[in-house]
Amino acid sequence: MGRLDGKVALISGGARGQGACEAKMFCREGAKVVFGDILDTAGQATEAEIRAAAGEATYVHLNVTSEADWRAAVATAERLYGHLHILVNNAGILIRKGIEETTEDDWDRIMAVNVKGVFLGTKHAIPAMRRAGGGSIINISSTAGLVGSPGGSSAYTATKGAVRLFTKATATQHARDKIRCNSVHPGPIATDMIKDTLENRDLWEQRLQRLPMRRVGTPEDVAYGGLYLASDESSFVTGSELVIDGGTTAE
């Protein structure tokens, strides 16, 4: 018996990396999954891989800054699978610049994807979850949403802090709808987002020295945390922060 049997999930940024890992894991645990991205070729390949493994998943084009795309994605989940119980706001971008180097366009773009995208997904998932009798919203933030970093992106940090507190507002305002909302705060995870850091051996050795566990995280490390929050095992957990960072923020 799977931990998500009978559940229907919607995942943004699911074509590759962490989102694709979440989609595959949720399907293995019995969920039916709609996942979206703007990387259509990669998304369709991930859908084919899941279906080949006997999972039930459907890829949709989803630009998280588009309200029409979110409406369509939620409608697809309800039309194909009957309900919507789980939303993972996973899509996000990183613009690695300091304050003075960040342009107004950079700021607007990262805010649109990382903050507006979470808001729109949540806004359109809530009515569907209410119709389903409740649900779980999982917002992928970052350790950058908890602490600042001398070498971090100021704009990225601002977006992830916004996601952290938007999560708490959602949790408190919709607890009586039986809708839970929690944030996940990964440290460095081996995905394309930090590919430039991983490929710079000297820089990565410096980063490793600041990691108590002396290793980078994997997409599976994060997906297992999301699986817990998506399942009924976390039925009394809402408004919380699940930190998955190898101890980085503990020091």
Description:
The protein is an alpha/beta fold. Helices cover 46% and strands 16% of the residues. It is built from eight helices and seven strands. It has a seven-stranded parallel β-sheet with strand order 3-2-1-4-5-6-7, sandwiched between helices. α2 links the parallel β2 and β3. The termini are far apart.
Question: Key features?
Answer:
single chain, 251 residues, alpha/beta, globular
Number of strands: 7
Secondary-structure element pattern, one letter each: EHEHEHEHEHEHHHE
Major beta sheet summary? 7 strands, parallel
Structural class based on helices, strands and sheet pairing: alpha/beta
Helix content: 40-55%
| Approximate strand percentage | 15-25%
Strand order of the largest sheet: 3-2-1-4-5-6-7
Low-pLDDT sequence parts: none
Principal-axes geometry comes out as globular
- C-alpha end-to-end distance: 39 Å
Q: Work out the radius of gyration.
A: 17 Å
- pLDDT averaged over residues: 93
What is the overall number of helices?
8
Brief description of this entry?
By secondary structure, the chain is of the alpha/beta class. The protein has eight helices and seven strands, in the order βαβαβαβαβαβαααβ. The longest helix is centred in the middle third of the chain and has 29 residues, at 104-132.
